[in-house]
Design a protein that fits this description.
Length: 80
């Protein structure tokens, strides 16, 4: 998982475990919770959300000031 700080998971190997869950459940089209630890990439988000480009357009209008920008948003391509 990229972009996660050293304190993101206190469980030994927790990041690897959660990434493994996502990979194994991918065939079920799971959508990891955005507010929790995940290994989403821009490409995977676009696969999971068929109208992703539409959402990005709306999001850029309503978040023009960048108030909702976060490390996660930057990591998955929501914000620059």
């Amino acid at each position: 998982m990229t972009g996660l700080g050293p304190d993101a998971v206190s469980t030994r190997h927790g990041e690897r475990l959660l990434t493994g869950y996502e990979e194994r459940l991918a065939d079920l089209d799971i959508r990891p919770h955005w507010g929790q630890l995940n290994s989403l990439t821009p490409a995977r988000v676009a696969q999971l959300y068929p109208r992703w480009d539409d959402w990005l357009s709306v999001q850029s209008t309503f978040n023009a000031s960048g108030v909702f920008t976060s490390p996660f948003a930057r990591r998955v391509g929501i914000a620059g």
